[in-house]
Amino acid sequence: MAFSRKAAIGFLRRAHEQKRLAHAYLISGPKGSGKREVAAALAQAVNGTDAADVFSSKAREIFVAEPESKSRRILIDQIRELEHGLQMRGIEGRRKVAIVAEADRLQPQAANAFLKTLEEPPANSLLLLLSALPEALPDTIVSRCISIPLARNGEEIKMPESAELVELLRDTAREKNWGVQQAYKVAQGMQSLLGGIKEQIKNQTADALKAEETRYRNSTDSGDWLEDREDYYKALTESLYIQRRAMLVEVLIEFWSDVLRACSSVPHRDFPAAKKETAALAERFSAADVLRRIQRLEELRDNLGRNIQEALAFEVAFLDVFGS
Questions:
Q1: Which of 29, 146, 207, 283 could anchor a disulfide with 22, C-beta 3.0 to 4.6 Å?
Q2: Which residues partner with 62 through β-bridges?
Q3: H-state helical runs in 217-273
């Protein structure tokens, strides 16, 4: 289960805003997946430093260790310097951030020294390990970090539910008589898609927790380890669901944006396979009517972000969008 770069940044920022950020993260993924970009975005969120300066000497209270020796290893002196920086008193309102880039290149003595920091992190600190080869890290280190695996090239994860929703919208567009019944039919179809997504995510996170429990139970002496991991996966399940729900809402907006383009004879389409159906809706509704529906979907997106009751929010919005 891998994050896109955008999803990883969104998840970590929400964790920070909700005061649920862990003290250590292992951000992993192949070259080009965006490990540094994710680390920089999170460091900016908690520290206030411009993301472009995170890996430079301009960054304040951000300490970076990465391979510098001829052997391309991270040496114990670098870790000691990083730890010294973390122990210094920080400016109020700014969190101290330690970034270990290419963490799999930690020299054994350096890894042991950093393990102590992971076990007893300094107050108001955040530890970020970046690695393209997390399997090379000691289990004792990995087990004390929350894992954030990134997809190759940081790409967005394809959602089959998006294609299913487009087909639902195409079928809806072919219906001549729209009303309350039709609006509820679309709302029920949407809830069915969301229910499948929620179940899939729950199964994935449960499997991931079980795998971690099997691998790390004997490699950490923290009695709170399992409880912390359960809390993490509960938050992750919620975050992934919200992310994918938001993507489906964007599909709704993009579909109606195609209708608006058809009203204005703009050739571009986000969903070219649905060109016939969006053109038919453009003949059926004025540009003002279509724009009103798009605005209603944008309101739905905003309302869902306020923890409003989900099923009711979709039903009320769809009565406006598909009920007439």
A1: 146
A2: 97
A3: 225-263
91, 61 contact by CB (below 8 A) = yes
Once rounded to an integer, what is the mean pLDDT over residues 116-128? 89
Residues 222-263: tens digit of each pLDDT: 556 667 777 778 878 887 888 788 889 989 998 999 999 999
Rounded to 5 degrees, what are φ and ψ at 221? -100, 10
Q: pTM for the full model?
A: 0.64
Judged by DSSP in three states, 25 sits in: strand
Domain map of the chain by residue range? 5-154, 160-322
3-state secondary structure of 233: helix
- Which tens digit of pLDDT belongs to each residue from 65-105? 998 766 788 999 999 999 888 888 766 667 889 999 999 99
Closest CA to 100 of 115, 82, 113, 112: 82
Distance from C-alpha of 61 to C-alpha of 47, rounded to nearest angstrom: 8
Residues 5-154: name the CATH superfamily.
P-loop containing nucleotide triphosphate hydrolases (3.40.50.300)
Take residue 254 and report the two structure tokens written for it.
């993009």
- The sheet carrying 24-28 orders its strands as 62-65, 96-100, 125-131, 24-28, 146-149
pLDDT, tens only, 55-73: 876 777 889 999 876 678 8
Q: Is the dihedral of CA 230, 234, 235, 237 positive or negative?
A: positive
Q: For residues 58 and 52, is the Cβ–Cβ distance under 8 A? A: no
Whether 127 and 62 have beta carbons less than 8 Å apart is answered as: no
Q: Give, in order, the Cα–Cα distances in Å from 104 to each of 89, 115, 126.
A: 29, 13, 19
Q: What is the CA radius of gyration of the chain?
A: 24
**Element (DSSP H or E) covering residue 311:** helix 310-322
Half-sphere exposure of 203 (CA within 13 A, CB side): 6
